[in-house]
Amino acid sequence: MTENSRTALVTGANKGIGYEIAAGLARRGFRVGVGARDTARREEAVDKLRAEGLDVFGVALDVTDDDSVVAAAAQLEELGGLDVLVNNAGITGGMPQEPSQVTAEQVLGVVDVNVLGVIRVTNAMLPMLRRAASPRIVNVSSTVGSLGLQTAQEEPVGPLSGAYSPTKTYLNALTVQYAKELAGAGILVNAGCPGYVATDLNGHRGTRTPEQGAAVFLDLATLPDDGPTGTFSDETGVQPW
């Protein structure tokens, strides 16, 4: 698949895994929109990637703000459309998160970014993706959202979490529903897990680098037209829902 002149958008791309996804797609020949709400960090990321000779541009994007999402879609439309969307932006909502201790406000805050943010951005970008030759939607999920792994192993998968982990379960469910709806449109929709990556999200306690974590999403973003849809995988292959 030739990526020349194809455009990708990565949300939450000013640092960590999102930054490495943006960098990886640009190195594969994509023109990449670096989506981020923090202006200074977004511009810093764009400058750093351009210094490498990569074709990137900044997209002011707060996934919790309808007007911001609409403006981002209008910017991409003006630039010629969109071929690949990577929904990476996410928050934990703060730890610890024992279910008996989390507040409704805390949970709603995480849902607004990790779930509703994906819906806002995806639906705003869908008109452009429907027109693209080989459109892809990639959702950055986590095995902490896998009900199969949470219940089938003696060792716990991630910490107790009444907010963050369930939003990834919800995101996995959304991935399936989008894949079912868009199957006839040729839009491949898949979710992936980067593994335990050292990022701000976990206080850099992870054992993998952001570049390693980005690899699975680069593969999902560049699947061939006859590739899978409605899947959840990590670097080792398909994972249980």
Name the helix and strand elements from N-terminus to C-terminus, one letter apiece: EHEHEHEHEHHEHEE
The total count of helices amounts to 7
Mean pLDDT: 93
Shape: globular
Which residues form runs of ≥5 with pLDDT under 50?
none
Structural class: alpha/beta
Helical fraction equals 40-55%
Intertermini distance:
29 Å
Q: Order of strands side by side in the largest beta sheet?
A: 3-2-1-4-5-6-7-8
| Oligomer class | single chain
Cα-atom radius of gyration: 17 Å
Our estimate of the beta-strand percent is 5-15%
How is this structure best summarized?
The chain is of the alpha/beta class and 241 residues long. The chain contains seven helices and eight strands; from the N terminus they run E-H-E-H-E-H-E-H-E-H-H-E-H-E-E.
Describe it.
The protein is of the alpha/beta class and 241 residues long. An eight-stranded mixed beta sheet has the order 3-2-1-4-5-6-7-8, with helices on both faces. It starts with 6 loop residues before the first strand and ends with a strand. The model has no long low-confidence stretch (mean pLDDT 93). α1 (16-27) crosses α7, α3 runs parallel beside α4 and α4 (104-131) runs parallel beside α6 (164-182). It is globular, with a radius of gyration of 17 Å. The chain contains seven helices and eight strands; from the N terminus they run βαβαβαβαβααβαββ. The protein has helices at 16-27, 39-51, 66-78, 104-131, 147-152, 164-182, 210-221, and strands at 7-10, 31-36, 56-60, 84-87, 136-140, 188-192, 232-234, 237-238.
